[in-house]
Write a structure and sequence with these properties.
single chain, mainly alpha, 3-stranded mixed sheet, two-stranded parallel sheet, 10 helices, about 10% strand, elongated
């Protein structure tokens, strides 16, 4: 809100009229991905400070309301309740208080995990406007999973272990949304799908988006990503002629891939064939696009 001039002008207009304002604020990072880790506590904190300074009388925060499951959910709920009670309390100090008090021997890697998320936000916020939609960096997932694994080994408290496992579920969600890293990653990807499904069942997660994806549907979608065919580009000693027509020799030089589906795993209703070839200078991709009759 401190960077949104239109809202600031509207708020000032209402307060100048003497309105008694109660604000309804959305605190999820992305309502199409409830579980995705969202480093937005700094934004929530600055928004509240700004609103209090401009005379609001109350605030209602809305987050994932359809099922359990939110990255750092228990901590975020506790910290925000404290801030609503006393907006003067420092957000960073509250996060540190929760982390040290709840995680005990596992607080070190969990603190590092919080700092990792904060760095993701700071890197994003430092970009020039317009910044575009926030996205976690490519290296975030591997580092986050390593920190959570370290934390899980440092606690013998089952309740703390469950909190760490809940957070791992959120990071696995981000990992699985990106698909297999490479064809050689399929076995690991399959195991992570199974682990996510088990954690979602354990923590009674049913909804992954506002009026959107459920766990079963999302798991099936990920399995289809895992099963995407591997296309092999065939080396050719003679480049095909680029004239829109494949000769019999060119047509027989590489495998024709035809079994395409939509991203939801539904078979394509119109047949499309693809062939891939390469030589020392270029990659050649040929398409056979068939028009339905009539």
């Amino acid at each position: 809100l401190t960077e949104t001039e239109k809202f600031q002008a509207a708020l000032k207009g209402w307060t100048d009229l003497g309105a008694r304002l109660v604000v309804w604020d959305y605190t999820f990072g992305d309502n199409t991905h409830w579980l995705r880790p969202a480093p937005n506590l700094t934004v929530i904190d600055r928004n509240l400070d700004f609103l209090v300074e401009h005379g609001i009388k109350g605030i209602f925060w809305q987050d994932n309301y359809e099922s359990p499951g939110k990255s750092r959910g228990p901590m975020v709920a506790w910290v925000m309740a404290k801030k609503a009670w006393n907006p003067q309390w420092n957000m960073d100090a509250l996060v540190a208080d929760f982390t040290e008090g709840v995680y005990g021997p596992a607080a070190g890697p969990m603190r590092a995990y919080n700092e990792l998320l904060q760095q993701e936000w700071e890197t994003y916020h430092a970009r020039p406007l317009p910044r575009g939609k926030f996205a976690l960096s490519m290296g975030f997932v591997d580092t986050a999973l390593a920190l959570l694994e370290e934390a899980s080994k440092l606690t013998t408290n089952p309740a703390v272990g469950d909190l760490i496992a809940r957070e791992k579920m959120s990071v696995l969600y981000e990992r699985l949304e990106r698909g297999p890293k490479a064809p050689t990653d399929e076995d690991g990807y399959r195991k992570e799908i199974e682990e996510f499904a088990q954690l979602a069942t354990k923590f009674q997660v049913t909804s992954l988006a506002e009026r959107g994806a459920n766990v079963e549907g999302k798991v099936n979608q990920w399995k289809m990503l895992k099963k995407r065919p591997k296309m092999q580009a065939v080396y050719v000693t003679q480049a095909p002629t680029i004239d829109g027509v494949l000769s019999p020799e060119e047509r027989n030089a590489a495998r024709l891939y035809e079994d395409w589906t939509t991203i939801k795993g539904v078979a394509s209703t119109v047949s499309t064939g693809v062939q891939v070839m390469w030589d020392e200078e270029h990659v050649y991709i040929a398409f056979r696009c068939r028009e339905p009759e009539g």
